[in-house]
Amino acid sequence: MRFLVAESGTPEDRQYRRDDVGRSSGESYAATLRQMRPGSSVDIAKPSDADTPSWDAQDIARYDAVFITGSPLHVYESSPAVERQLAFMRAVFASGAPSFGSCAGLQVAVAAAGGKVRKMRSRLEAGLSRRIVATAEGRNHPLLAGRPAAWDAPALHTDEVEELPDGSVLLAGNGPTLVQAAEIRHDRGIFWGVQYHPELSLAEIAAALRREAGDLVEAGLARSTDDVQQQSELFDALHDDPDNASLRWRLGVDEELAVERRRRLELANFLDAVPDLDRRASAAGRAPKG
Q1: Are residues 243 and 258 in contact, defined by beta-carbon separation less than 8 angstroms?
Q2: What secondary structure does DSSP assign to the chain, as a single string?
Q3: Considering its fold, how many domains does the chain have in total?
Q4: With contact defined as beta carbons under 8 Å apart, do 138 and 194 qualify?
Q5: 100 and 221: one domain?
Q6: Within this chain, do residues 135 and 213 fall inside the same structural domain, yes or no?
Q7: What Å distances lie between residue 265 and 19, 78, 99, 268, CA to CA?
Q8: Averaged in consecutive runs of 10 residues, what is the pLDDT profile of the chain (290 residues)?
Q9: Domain contains 218
């Protein structure tokens, strides 16, 4: 299969993350996809960059699926980088290629299709999204197939979806974040997205916590940067030993978070569905085949 990963951040965002964990969000996504689908071809696009080649719907239609990464991008802040990112996402919808996004990737799709995104009004979610619950529609949706009644997922975000666009279905939410998973049908395209990060390792979450330690203390989620460091060390340890019952207990998580195969379930479900997703789904009002 041929996949396109779109970085949803700026060159500075990418370099900052490389300096921290060794690769950008798009490079992490590409590595995950290559691991999950050996033999697949994965290209990386950088639509927010001023000097990036333009992507039109015909270019994008050559791919089996498109993936939109997370980033520090705030889609409610008008800037050339944001406008280029939204234009790219509209081209994805126009192409009919199935698409998937996490965190800012969900927010980009929402804004491109006419919905609204805002800064979170309550506390941010950092490290984990707790007690995510599927809606009635989500319980029967293939994106969440195999999830239990409630689950935790890796997360770090300060923005949230305020209003889904027309042609959307809310699939899951939790206390801090109303929209944790959604389907969007717009133009000729169909998008499945989550506010959390099924593509990330626990070590990458640990690095993100350390990177944002000052902000977490300022937000009142930690008493000090030492607290953040201790929490990060637990994530690192669980990354190395996911079956460790003591570590799971200390973090208050189960296999849905600790085990890589379970953590990546939404991404795996999307990849399984791609061959049967109708590229005319929005216009025809069709669900995935089968």
Answers
A1: yes
A2: -EEEEE--S-HHHHHHHHHHHSS-HHHHHHHHHHHHSTT-EEEEE-TTSTTSPP--HHHHTTSSEEEE---S--TTS--HHHHHHHHHHHHHHHHT--EEEETHHHHHHHHHTT-EEEE-SSPPEEEEEEEEEE-HHHHT-GGGTT--SSEEEEEEESEEEEEPPTTEEEEEE-SS-S-SEEEEEETTEEEEEESS-TT--HHHHHHHHHHTHHHHHHTTS-SSHHHHHHHHHHHHHHHH-TT-HHHHHHHT--HHHHSHHHHTHHHHHHHHHGGG--TTHHHHTPPPP-
A3: 2
A4: no
A5: no
A6: no
A7: 28, 34, 16, 5
A8: 91 81 87 95 94 91 95 89 94 97 96 95 82 97 97 92 95 94 96 95 91 86 92 96 97 96 97 84 42
A9: yes
Do residues 6 and 86 both lie within one domain? Answer: yes
Can you give the residue range of the structural domain that contains 235? 202-258
pLDDT given for residue 266 in this prediction: 98
The rounded distance, in Å, linking the Cα atoms of 32 and 242 is: 18
Say if residue 95 is in the same domain as residue 62. yes
**Residue 126 identity:** A
Q: Are residues 104 and 137 in the same domain?
A: yes
Other CB atoms within a 10 A radius of the CB of residue 54 amount to: 10
pTM: 0.91
